[in-house]
Amino acid sequence: MKTTIYIQSALLATALLAVNIVFAQNNKGDEDKDMFNNAKARDQQAIDKAVKGWWAQSMKTHDQRIDWWHKAKFGMFIHWGVYSQAGGEWKGQKVSGYAEHLMRKEKISRAEYLELAHHFNPVLFNADTWVRNAREAGMNYLIITSKHHDGFAMYDSKVSDFNIMQQTPFKRDPMKELSAACKKYGVKFGFYYSHAFDWEHPDAPGNDWEYKNPGGDLNLYGGTNWFDVHPELLPKAVKYVNEKAIPQIKELLRNYHPDILWFDTPHKLPLSENIRILEAIRETDPNVVVNGRLARSGDMNFGDYKNTADRPAEFYPVTGDWEAIPTTNESYGYSKYDDSHKPAAFFIQLLAKAVSRGGNLLMNIGPRGDGEMDVKDVTILKGIGEWVAKNKASIYDVGPSSLPLQSWGVTTQKNNLVYLHVFNWPSDGRLQLGGLLNKIDKAYLLTDPAKQPLRIITGNRMTSIMVPPQAPDTSNTVIVLALKEKPKTDSVRFVASNTATRLLAFDAILKGKGFGFGDGKASGYYVDGWKSANQQIAWHFNLGESARFKIVVKYVATPETAGAYQLQLDQNKYEGKVQATEKGNVIQTIELGTADLIAGYHQLTIAPLALGKSELMRLLEVQLVPQNLAAIFTNAEAQSRLMIQEIAKANAGKPDLVSPRTLEHGNLKLVASRDWTSGFFPGVLWFLDAYTGKREWLQAAKQFTANIEKEKTNGTTHDMGFKVYCSFGTGYRITKDAHYKEVIVQAARTLARRFNATTGTLRSWDHSRDKWGFPVIIDNMMNLELLFEGAKLSGDTSLYRIAVAHANTTMKNHFRPDYSSYHVVDYDTLTGKVVKKTTHQGYANESAWARGQAWGLYGYTMCYRETKNKAYLDHAEHIAAFILHHPNLPQDKVPYWDFNAPGIPNEPRDASAAAVIASALYELSAYTKTNAKIYRATADQILESLAGSQYTSPANENKGFILLHSTGAKPANSEVDVPLNYADYYYLEALLRGKNLQEGKPVLQLAK
Question: Does some domain include residue 378?
Answer without folding.
Answer: no
